[in-house]
Design goal:
The structure is a homodimer of 423-residue chains. The first copy, chain A, is an alpha+beta fold and 423 residues long. Chain A folds into two domains: 121 residues, Roll (SH3 type barrels); 289 residues, Fumarylacetoacetase-like, C-terminal domain (Fumarylacetoacetate hydrolase, domain 2, Alpha-Beta Complex), CATH 3.90.850. In chain A, the strands form seven sheets. In chain A, strands 6, 7, 8, 13, 14, 16, 17 and 22 form an eight-stranded mixed beta sheet that branches. A five-stranded antiparallel beta sheet of chain A has the order 4-3-2-1-5. A five-stranded mixed beta sheet of chain A has the order 9-26-25-20-21, with no helix packed on it. At the A-B interface, strand 7, strand 10 and helix 7 of A face strand 7, strand 10 and helix 7 of B.
Amino acid sequence: MQIPANNPALQSWVPYATDTEFPIQNLPFGIFETQTSSKRVGVRIGDFVLDLFQISNFGYFSDLCFSTQDFEQPFLNPMMRHGKLAIRELRNRISALLSKDNNSFQIRKNEHQALIPITEIQMSLPVQIGDYTDFYSSKEHATNVGVMFRDPANALLPNWLWIPVGYHGRASSVIASEHPVVRPKGQIKPDDNAAPIFAPSRQVDFELEMGFVTFDGKALGESISTSEAEEFIFGLCLFNDWSARDIQKWEYVPLGPFLAKNFASSMSCWIVTLDALQPFACATPTQDPEVLSYLKFEGNKSYDIQLEVAIEAPACKEQVVSRSNFKYMYWNMSQQLAHHTVNGCNVRCGDLMGSGTISGPTPDSYGSMLELAWKGTKPIQMPDGSERRFIQDYDTVIMRGHCENNGIKIGFGEVKSQLLPAN
Amino acid sequence: MQIPANNPALQSWVPYATDTEFPIQNLPFGIFETQTSSKRVGVRIGDFVLDLFQISNFGYFSDLCFSTQDFEQPFLNPMMRHGKLAIRELRNRISALLSKDNNSFQIRKNEHQALIPITEIQMSLPVQIGDYTDFYSSKEHATNVGVMFRDPANALLPNWLWIPVGYHGRASSVIASEHPVVRPKGQIKPDDNAAPIFAPSRQVDFELEMGFVTFDGKALGESISTSEAEEFIFGLCLFNDWSARDIQKWEYVPLGPFLAKNFASSMSCWIVTLDALQPFACATPTQDPEVLSYLKFEGNKSYDIQLEVAIEAPACKEQVVSRSNFKYMYWNMSQQLAHHTVNGCNVRCGDLMGSGTISGPTPDSYGSMLELAWKGTKPIQMPDGSERRFIQDYDTVIMRGHCENNGIKIGFGEVKSQLLPAN
């Protein structure tokens, strides 16, 4: 697929560092506001945000299918409703406007007016999420959990290699980066108690995930095939699926995690389009046993996205605790979406799908404290000499991600959230 | 609590049968349209719908906090955003307008214009559902499932008597009564196969539930106590949580049901306010062991609502297969909502909470085919001589519910959906 905005030779008249995560080849979408403006759609380039409402007002999109109102909104959904091809055309247009080749003085003058330094803006949750689904698609993560809590000899459950296992999460408590998280209280069953107690969780954990956001899918009763799936995916973000392990342990049999997860899930604010990620598409790990027909796919459907997690404590500089990669996932997004809809379940514009914890093959690439500190037996050392088995009050968890090849870096920024003490 | 609209002595100038489910003491809210009008808010009385948009246009609500636009909407949410006290005032006002004591000719003339026979309207999904949560709060149901699939001697899982167990469901596939359901396809693992197969479900089942719809709750990080809970509940509906047992069996460990449930859930179209149900409040079954503090409650928080399920097949008259009651639920709605938010999880206007399958103490009061036909060992006899272990293609499942005392019947109408063959 040739997408003009992805041309690695493109350069922008907007100044940015050569190693920026937001070169002209990225152009992610988000929702921002300033001291004086309402919430609107922006596109990031270098350390600036291009105000699409302004640009649309100037008439640069007048031959596209969008209305100016699509860009003065608290969420990306109205813009996204126009679908994949329209968004591709829009991104190509923005690329052309920001390209060095575009020498019209008037255009630059207007665009300068619409170009706002990121220091002057405030970001918020980019999409109004209809439904949030979380998958469990890292074989290494599922194996680690199985080894720790079940049988090391049979770590994976019988269905795991057949099904991209997923479950429904809570949309209301998905929050934007920088929004703090309150330590949840709940029922915990200490091993030596006959009865559960009610207390703040002592095992608050992060889960390193990526999320993808969908366009409107098909009608209820119809399915999306693996070959169609990417046409229904708008883009990706970083995602921290906060978890309370002690609450989870007591509540999750037989219907799955509930209060252990729904107190908060944090997403990064820039949605990097799947189009921008095409140059980083790569092979999915070999799947053995052979998957059922509806899960078969062709081509490169995984993405090489380098990820890291850091913990920052008050008066202690940040410590990177994990380096992983999205390409490790056993099940790819096309398979997840095909599975999700194979029973006729409908997806809607703005739905969010979490990948599940992204753990790599080595202990320093695991995607949760549960695994990194191996159930508390191998605490993580912090620069100030303290240890972490789980996340402490006032710790900030920061996740970052980017792709890189041919000297071009396509980044996601970060998702960052501080844990506050229980109320 | 004295709510004027609940006065059993009230009579309406609108003609209706003495045994109607929709007397002036009910006044449930829903969304309707006609051949000539857009979707708007209506209140049911007898076999008529009162068009609130018209009534508001006439100025009868001008001293209340609602705008006329709140009533010309595809969902009840904008009206509901005004909160419990405003809705109570609105229902009291509508009661006054429809009361026989109201003798103003002009009022009656206007109201007659706004009174539309139900034969001339089409109902649709009443609320835009933010998140849908399903509980598992019938002890009889949980016990039956435990006896069938686990250990009869330890049928209830260890957490069941401590936690109002719940899990997140899919909001996008919640549909209104009369909307057909397509038999889902999915992975099924026959006992004698090493590998799963992909096929239409052979075990499509209903689950007799009631749903409650919430007002906006508190901010993320805060909790709703059992004593506050009812102030955040707008009303109730009948709810059929369609389930595919064979898909469920293979997929649900460890993260809970997913494709076995999210192909469709059907709700009835009239939301009966919790206010209208107050005269039918009753005691919750004794809870032993004593629940944790945050789950304790005072007063009558359960509701005596008689329920029935019927199956209708083509060329075969309907067969009532279950008669149950909402009052059997071990955990009440106030406990469910307190539990759901005790970790700080936020609920929003229009969220839907399913009760879980409502099974009573006797085999004819079970709330699913799985239990009624006891895993297929006791098939249900139909009037045409055929048998049912699960739901067959073209069967229609009908659920009905009402309360009754002092000669007053408060009903929910029905939720009715036909199962169509797999695509």
